[in-house]
Amino acid sequence: MSSITQISWTDQTDNIIRAKVGGWWCHKKSEGCANCFAEKLNQNSFFGGNKQPYSGQPPELVLDTEAIRKWGFQRKPKKHFVSSMTDVFGEWVPRFWQHEMLDGMFVAPNQIFQILTKRPEIMLSSMDEWLSCHGLDKLPLNIWPGTSIENRRTLEERSQFLSKIPALIRFWSVEPLLEDLGDITHYLNDVQLVIIGGESGPNSRPCHIEWLESIVQQCQQSKTPVFVKQLGANAKLEGQRFKTRDKKGGNIEEFPEYLQVREFPFDA
Ligand code: SF4
């Protein structure tokens, strides 16, 4: 199922894994999942949710093979954020589903697929297996593997697995940024796009604009494309609340000038 999205770093979301009864499912993994937007949407039957929490045992799931097949027939090039409502590389997802998804991406070279996971160790082993089945040594340029990073712990842990995936474009989604990441320069050698943002929605945890600024500066110094998605709903500057009219702090015109940066690798 494809949807138009408000996520500024993509053109559409393709939720190819869904619950058979409707809605979606995922399993919370780390601090970044605490206020999971997808789980909140899934609690609401008005939006097609099944009200099951993102914990416990998965409901029966289905892979939308028809949506995958259609990728190969799309003429207009677009960026697809694949499965924004779950983690395609969750432990509960059959490996052959992941490979079917990659097969569909492989035959749609004019579409860009952004696949984001909090489980890059599974992504690495699944992609390695898929590459060797196809006699390839690298993912094609249109498949962008990415990992979520929310704090220093996940930076350390997840970036090492992502960096081992043989891809031309690997990306980080540093959202929600929950603490200052400190010196990230040596990690930047292995990533080709860094997306950053503060948390939005009810009970948003604070995001200090100085943390975002530090990442932007280090990316610019190392010539790594950086994309500032949003300041979040609880942005702080010099310890004080930084209010924006946009409730997610996602209007670039309201960002401090030094954060008005939205870059992509090449002209994607
Ligand atoms: S991995 Fe993503 S979709 Fe799954 S629970 Fe965490 S934030 Fe939600």
Q: Could you explain the architecture of this structure?
A:
The structure is a single chain. This protein has helices spanning 37-42, 65-71, 95-106, 120-133, 152-162, 209-221, and strands spanning 2-4, 12-14, 17-19, 61-63, 79-82, 112-117, 143-148, 171-174, 193-197, 207-208, 226-230, 235-237, 240-241. With 268 residues, it is α/β, with parallel strands linked by helices. The chain has a single domain (2-12, 78-259), classed as pyruvate-formate lyase- activating enzyme (Alpha-Beta Horseshoe). An eight-stranded mixed beta sheet has the order 1-2-5-6-7-8-9-11. Strands 10-12-13 form a three-stranded mixed beta sheet. Helix 4 links the parallel strand 6 (112-117) and strand 7. Helix 2 (65-71) packs parallel to helix 3 and helix 4 runs parallel beside helix 5. It binds iron/sulfur cluster. Iron/sulfur cluster binds next to helix 1.
Content of β-strand: 15-25%
Radius of gyration: 18 Å
Estimated structural class: alpha/beta
> What's the number of domains?
1
The hetero molecules present are: iron/sulfur cluster
* Amino- and carboxy-terminal Cα gap: 23 Å
Largest sheet: 8 strands, mixed
Strand order of the largest sheet: 1-2-5-6-7-8-9-11
Pfam family, one: DUF5131
Organism: Nostoc favosum CHAB5714
InterPro entries: DUF5131
Protein name: Phage Gp37/Gp68 family protein
